[in-house]
Design goal:
The chain is an all-alpha fold. The protein is built from five helices and no strands. The longest helix is centred in the first third of the chain and has 34 residues. The radius of gyration is 17 Å and the shape is elongated.
């Protein structure tokens, strides 16, 4: 019984680190490209109807969110970062759909990032969770 619990615990930890790794790589890269206002990102946000300055705001928050997820402690800040990432990715997905942009490449990025947010948040170790009650 104890061996099964250890194996399950290790499996959850592996899922957490894979999802978290993919999440922080994707968020940091997209945040950096947004802050740098690369042509690809400028074209993307303007096609969705957002102003170019939105890139600086979103990119800065993405980079700060990555730092919050990776830095030890600060459990409440991590919760906010996860929530912000989830809202940003589901908002990006909705923006594409509302603008009738059904290109699979444009939809897969935010969809997978939203999935990585949920998996990272759900499988995070107890040491990274806020205990209520």
């Amino acid at each position: 019984m104890e061996t099964t619990q250890k194996t399950e615990g290790k499996g959850k930890l592996v899922i957490y680190w894979i999802a978290t790794g993919l999440l922080v790589i994707g968020m940091f890269q997209s945040g950096l490209f947004a802050v740098l206002r690369t042509k690809q990102w400028v074209d993307l946000v303007t096609a969705l109807g957002y102003p170019v300055y939105f890139l600086t705001i979103l990119g800065t928050w993405k980079i700060l969110g990555v730092i919050a997820i990776l830095v030890p402690k600060f459990k409440l800040l991590k919760e906010w970062a996860y929530a912000g990432f989830f809202f940003a990715m589901t908002g990006a997905l909705a923006s594409h759909l509302f603008c009738h942009d059904y290109d699979i490449r444009g939809l897969m990025g935010p969809a997978f990032q939203a999935l990585f947010v949920v998996l990272s948040w759900y499988f995070r170790p107890a040491s990274k969770k806020i205990v209520v009650g």
